[in-house]
Automatic annotation (TrEMBL):
Region of interest called Disordered, as start-end residue ranges on this chain: 460-485
Gene3D superfamilies per UniProt: 3.30.420.40
InterPro entries given in the database record: ATPase_NBD, FGGY_C, FGGY_N, Rhamnulokinase
Domain of life assignment: Bacteria
UniProtKB keywords: ATP-binding, Disulfide bond, Kinase, Nucleotide-binding, Rhamnose metabolism, Transferase
Annotated organism of origin: Deinococcus seoulensis
CDD domains linked: ASKHA_NBD_FGGY_RhaB-like (cd07771)
Every Carbohydrate kinase FGGY C-terminal domain range: 253-440
Residue ranges occupied by any Carbohydrate kinase FGGY N-terminal domain in the UniProt entry: 7-241
Record PANTHER family: L-RHAMNULOKINASE, SUGAR KINASE
GO molecular function ontology, one term from the record: kinase activity
Pfam families the record matches: FGGY_C, FGGY_N
Family: Belongs to the FGGY kinase family.
Protein name in the entry: Carbohydrate kinase
Length: 485
């Protein structure tokens, strides 16, 4: 058939991009038109996103896309949990708070005590993380909530600015801690118990929903005409998981690697067992009614903040870190002390090693190596936990996202997990976003989404380098993950 063109806007916590995707005969070509930095803005003792600055970058990217010709559709995805509040006139009320804002200090603890952990987890199946939307709303000033007519998650807010629709797309709704993964609706009893006005929460729509046409002001600004706004899987991690280049073989897990390392499996249904809760696992919505059963691991955030502190040449740093010997100190990267921004991040890493009686990394390469070793170790532990919770062996690990460019972390992850790591695509989120739009427009034919990803991406495999790190699995009668060096 004739090629169609779609624009994906991917806003990550550390950077954003606008890309043009061309789809033809089960093949996707992606061209990134515009990249821009993103991050928290410290203001008035809090931390916010520069949402208007991001919107300006989006408009600029759309203008570049418009210069290339006809664009069938556009869709936005972003990081999860954060939102804007609109008043009755559709005006944004104040700013968009950052999920690492100190306004959340102590709030989750209070809400957990008030509502009870059982009630919260049974209703939502979401990992207890201090920034879930449930807790953020508890930190709102009552006046701001009273003035608000509707809450829109960040991608939904941008869709509203693009086309005027007020809807919440399902995958991102599922990150809020206000969503029931079994009913697929808001967790109304919990919403009521938390004192959140029901009317704040818009109706939930599926990924692939046509939200309408561009508003006249956006058409004027960008030069795009005839372009539809189609919701992708608006949670960046959902789009990334949709673009994991796995076949139909089963037995695989993924790491969506960027600011966070989202480590999980795709499950046909939510898992809200005691085992899942004890592991503090998240059940987020994926494409086609699947569940992303995963865990938030602190991720490359720790390295990003070290980098900010040092202002160093990172290629050289990684090379020096790779030359260090194995068996160095490791710490728990999910310790809450690493959540907040700060140029004292290297000191926090050192303190964590010191407190556990290990050698304290001193130089930047030693510290980076220590962080990567710790992430790899943590990913391995989460995989073992996921196997135990689901009863399904994990033989292969797919790593997608910006972090999949890090050869050192990929190799350390293969070594720590004892599984082959298949790295790429780097722009999985953009790809997932584009393919959902293309499919919604009827431009993918019957092609399986992940087959298109595989056909269109270059992947790299990392093999565990030392002996069989894992024991033979009971019951399967075979050794899995054994690698001949
Ligand atoms: P997010 O969507 O959370 O902003 P990305 O998926 O864009 O994150 O990934 C950004 C991360 O990718 C950075 O923190 C950086 O550590 C990592 N990264 C990017 N390029 C490289 C590279 N060449 N080598 C190693 N890591 C890289
Ligand atoms: C990754 C991500 C992750 C969320 C976090 C807030 O960008 O969306 O899935 O938990 O940001």
């Amino acid at each position: 058939g004739a090629p169609t063109r779609h624009v994906a806007i991917d806003l990550g916590a550390s950077s954003g991009r606008v890309a043009l995707g061309t789809v033809q005969d089960g093949w996707l070509e992606v061209e990134v038109l515009h990249r821009f930095p993103n991050g928290g803005v410290p203001v008035s003792g809090g931390l916010q996103w520069d949402i208007l600055g991001l919107w300006r970058e989006v408009l600029h990217g759309l203008t570049l896309a418009g210069q290339r010709g006809v664009v069938a559709s556009v869709g936005v995805n972003s990081w999860a949990v954060d939102y804007g509040l609109l008043d009755a006139h559709g005006e944004l009320l104040g700013g968009v708070h950052h999920y690492r804002s100190p306004r959340l200090d102590g709030v989750m603890e209070r809400v957990r005590t008030d509502l009870g952990d059982d009630a919260i987890y049974e209703a939502t199946g979401i990992q207890f993380l201090p920034f879930n939307t449930l807790y953020q709303l508890a930190a709102e000033r009552p006046e701001r909530l009273a003035e608000a007519e509707v809450l829109l998650m960040v991608p939904d807010l941008l869709h509203f600015w693009l086309c005027g629709a007020k809807a919440t797309e399902r995958t991102n709704a599922s990150t809020t801690g206000l969503y029931d993964p079994r009913t697929g609706d808001w967790a109304w009893a919990l919403v009521d118990a938390a004192g959140i006005p029901r009317a704040l929460l818009p109706h939930i729509v599926e990924p692939g929903t046509d939200l309408g046409e561009l508003r006249p002001d956006v058409v004027r600004e960008t030069g795009l005409t005839g372009t539809r706004v189609i919701a992708p899987a608006t949670h960046d991690t959902a789009s990334a998981v949709a673009a994991v280049p796995a076949g139909e073989e089963g037995g695989w897990a993924y790491v969506s690697s960027g600011t966070w390392s989202l480590v999980g499996v795709e499950s046909p249904r939510p898992v809200l067992t005691d085992a899942a809760r004890n592991m503090n696992l998240t059940n987020e919505a994926g494409l086609g009614g699947t569940t992303r059963l995963l865990k938030n691991v602190m991720g490359l955030w720790i390295v990003q903040e070290c980098r900010r502190a040092w202002n160093a040449d990172f290629a050289a740093l990684y090379a020096d870190a790779a030359a260090l010997s194995t068996g160095g100190p490791v710490f728990d990267p999910d310790d809450a002390r690493f959540l907040a921004p700060g140029t004292d991040m290297p000191a926090r890493v050192q303190a964590a090693c010191r407190e556990t009686g290990q050698p304290v990394p001193q130089t930047p390469p030693e510290i980076v190596r220590c962080v990567l070793d710790s992430l790899a170790r943590r990913i391995a532990d989460v995989l073992d936990g996921l196997e135990a919770v689901t009863g399904t062996p994990i033989d292969t690990l797919y790593v997608v996202g910006g972090g999949s460019q890090g050869d050192l972390l990929n190799q350390l992850t293969a070594d720590a997990t004892g599984r082959p790591v298949i790295a790429g695509p780097v722009e999985a989120t953009l790809i997932g976003n584009l393919l959902v739009q293309a499919r919604a427009g009827g431009h993918l034919g019957g092609a399986r989404l992940r087959d298109v990803v595989r056909a269109s991406s270059e992947l790299q495999t990392f093999t565990p380098s030392s002996g069989p790190a894992r024991a033979p699995r009971a019951g399967t009668g075979q050794t899995v993950g054994e690698v001949i060096p």
